[in-house]
Fold this protein.
Amino acid sequence: MKTVSSLSRDELGRRLGAGGLHLQTGRFVTRVHSPIASVADGIALLYADYPVQEDARFADFHIRLSPSGGLRRWVRPQVVFDFDGTAPFTPLPIEQAFPMFEWAMNACVSSRANGYLIIHAAVVEKDGAAAILPAPSGSGKSTLCAALVTRGWRLLSDELALVDLATGRLEALPRPVSLKNASIDIMRGYAPGAVFSRAVRDTVKGAIAHMKAPAASVLRAGDTARPAWIIFPQYQAGAATALTPVAPARAFMDLAGNAFNYSLLGGAGFDAMAGLIDSTQAWQFTYSSLDDAVALFARLQAEPA
Amino acid sequence: MKQLPLAVRAFRAPGRMSSFSLAEWDLLLRQAASANLTAALYYLAEQHGQLALLPGRVREHLAWAHAQGERHRQGVFFEVRQIRRALAELDVPVILLKGAAYTMAGLPPAPGRLYSDIDILVPKERLDEVEAALMLHGWAANHLDAYDQRYYRQWMHELPPMQHVIRQSLIDVHHAILPETAAARPDPASLRAASVAAAGDDGLRVLAPLDMVLHSAVHLFYDGEYDHGLRDLADIQRLLLQFSQAPGFWQALPQRAAELQLSRPLFYALRYAHRLLGVEVPAAALAAGRPPAPLLALMDALFSRALLPPHASCADRYTSLALLLLYIRGNWLRMPPLLLARHLFHKAFLSPKDAAA
């Protein structure tokens, strides 16, 4: 299986510029087209372990990130995301091209993949049981997710929980974990051996960097997981680590509120959500120390189901 | 003649969809997505027994769109029910047009057809009452400046689109199928008189088959924008295939077109339904409404581009120009030249830029 790391940086840049890099993430293949150097740099660094398809005949998504035309080529240059003819995002400063690539990769899946109930959540797994961590931005979900996957948990996703409508199992779609503002330095300290991209400043979410997904997680992208817990994280400075049970009906409504396509899926969405709630325990999780959080997750995971 | 794009070929010969290679399907799906036809492709494949024969990845993408198509259909049924409730006390005949008509009458263009507005036709003299009843039940006129309001109420054949404040659904209330400022004046009373019950439910009415074909034709070939071109042409194709099974259809169609002053749009509809989507049309039906040869040559050049999916793979160097000319033509057909000049001037230079377009 040929990976991105087997391509030289020049070859990678050439393929991306010619619109011919077929990058596999989880079970999706995305044809990526971008002449922008920072996008190629980001892919070379953070997607080194990911399969590249040679002579691909079919891609699930076709994306292009290119510099804006006209005056914007020279005056405060911008990058535009083209989703095969539509431009779903407003253009951004060209320094933000790689974060835009990551957002684009998420948008492709969350806007189309209606074979899954898609929830805005991180998903990690250990010894056959997975935890779904839903949360609106700023709740510390990604930081917690990054910490867990550097302490033995498998990364399924830091952004999209994909619940298979037919089986109720979670699809794995491991990709770089996005970190914001203070979390960037915290994680650099917490996991000094991990690979991080350079931080990009002044985005709409502040400073953004990405942590490379563990190679073991990428290798196991074909393995689905059984959902066991739904854990609503809330980082609170100075708080003691606490786990409080959440009633099933409340968990259902909160998850539905965090889902991309719950309403679109109609009855099938309801059934998938109900199946998920029935087969999991739901907890509200408050923490201020990553070490304590990781330890608590270990204890939770060790308990018999 | 250059070969037709893959997405057009799929609608032209749905029974042969499984003969496309995986690489061809990659492009076909992208063209269909640009034309908002992925859901329609699912149902088309299913109807023609092709679904199980397609590659797994293709079937999966079509299934994703199928979920959208089902939800849309459910939404339309609910919305139509709400509209009926709102207008129940008025005892006014309400006729569904276009997409909502196809959906409620279970007609061939319906499965997978995605649209944002529900269109109804009511008598002009009841327009104010209908608008008031809708407002009482939660629909509000969209924020439009005074010019746009006058454009609609004075010149156009419909109220400004109304949006429900809670459900965000849109309704277009028509009193005619063409503006009063247009050259052709299809008599709305005649259309209403010929209307039929939708799927046996007398409270819900749709246009008679001939009129439905003609409305679809004039809606497409009088329009200025062609993002929905292939979808609307496929509607015409499937309406023709369905209704032409009735004896006398091909004789009655041009006659009715002449009565409604719609011979020219019918000509274009039949011509391009035949050329692009392979509909067999008797020569006699194409006799009336034919434009002079130079004009026809120009229209062929414009429509052969505009009716394709709006995807880069279907465009050539003249496509942008063709779309621009058709945009101007679309406005030209709706109002006399002086009024048009004033309107375009106003739109270009005086109208506030619509932030939430």
